[in-house]
Design brief:
Blueprint: H1 2-28, E1 30-37, E2 39-42, E3 52-57, E4 69-73, H2 78-85, E5 89-91, E6 95-99, E7 103-108, E8 119-121, H3 131-135, E9 138-139, E10 152-158, E11 161-167, E12 172-175, E13 187-195, E14 203-207, E15 216-218, E16 226-232, E17 256-257, E18 264-267, E19 298-301
Parallel strand pairs: 1-16, 2-19, 7-10, 8-11
Antiparallel strand pairs: 1-13, 2-3, 3-10, 4-6, 4-16, 5-6, 7-14, 9-17, 11-13, 12-18, 14-15
């Protein structure tokens, strides 16, 4: 019986080793992209999800200032990130940051393959307002260009993975409410999660005027999931610190042409700082509500 026991133990060890190797490969192929702030998810082939991309919308120079930023792991290839974006890269112990200005991004592999189809959309994504219905307008044509230009700071191609959304704590309504939606949830952070091809490593791919028409591969060193954040939050004009405001939702108007009054976002609990709403709380009292008031919300088109 002892030889049989030895064989069983050996087989168990072999299965464990193969399982561990597969887990490592699977982990390195995994990616998560978090979209936080004034970002519109554009689906030109709606109701299909092909050729979708996220639009990172610029803030204003003096009012409604925003700081569109790509946040990566600290082990990212800094030189490749700098060269691909044409922007300086700033790193601390945990992350590297680069200003999003005039470049396009996507997830793919080191051999320039994009994340595999299909793109799927979870029901939680319905928390992102459908801006065509909300405004009764049309989107500007430059959202389909190869590279972003003002009023768009950056593109992020949504070629594959699963889109989900978390919501702000407080419901809100539109004023005027052209779509009769009433009090509704708003999407706070939208996440794109998925895997690239088996036995591959998930990398960031970037194209800009410095690489056009090619994509530049920007990988990180550790064999673990790639997690990046696309952040487009409002900042205080004097110190650059993030500041919440229901007024920021108006920036979506930059990519929409409509003959109707553009809707304001009015939180259902009377918080916020938009004078167009019937009851608001002073801005100084809303700074602790960064995840509560739906000013810098993710949206979708159509």
């Amino acid at each position: 019986m002892r030889p049989i026991t030895t064989i069983v133990v050996f087989v168990a060890m072999l299965v464990s080793a193969v399982s561990s190797e597969a887990q490592t490969l699977s982990t390195a192929a995994e990616f998560t992209v978090k979209f936080d702030g004034i970002i519109m998810h554009y689906f030109p082939a709606s109701p299909l999800f092909t050729n979708a991309r996220a639009l990172i919308i610029q803030g204003n120079a003096m009012t409604l200032r925003h700081n569109p930023t790509l946040i990566t792991p600290v082990d990212i290839d800094v030189a490749a990130l700098r060269d691909a974006t044409g922007q300086p890269v700033f790193c601390d112990n945990l992350h590297c940051r680069v200003k999003i200005s005039g470049f396009d991004m996507q997830i793919g592999t080191a051999d320039l393959k994009p994340a595999p189809d299909p793109l799927t959309v979870d029901l939680t994504f319905n928390d992102a307002p459908n801006m065509q219905r909300v405004t009764r307008g049309e989107i500007i044509s430059s959202v389909a260009d190869g590279l972003p230009a003002p009023p768009i700071a950056g593109f992020f191609e949504l070629s594959g993975g699963a889109l989900t959304a978390s919501r702000f704590k407080v419901y809100a309504s539109f004023k005027p409410d052209h779509d009769n939606e009433g009090s509704r949830p708003f999407a706070h952070v939208v996440s794109l999660h998925g895997f690239v091809a088996p036995n591959s490593v998930a990398c960031l791919q970037i194209r800009s005027i410095h690489t056009w028409p090619d994509w530049e591969v920007v990988c990180h060193e550790k064999p673990e999931p790639l997690t990046i954040t696309v952040e487009n939050q409002g900042t205080h004009s004097s110190n650059g610190q993030p500041v919440p405001s229901t007024l920021h939702f108006a920036l979506n108007k930059k990519v929409i042409v409509t003959a109707l009054p553009f809707p304001h976002v009015c939180p259902s609990d009377g918080s916020g700082d938009d004078p167009a709403c019937s009851s608001t709380t002073p801005l100084s009292q809303t700074k602790s509500m960064f995840d509560a008031i739906a000013g810098c919300a993710n949206t979708q088109w159509p």
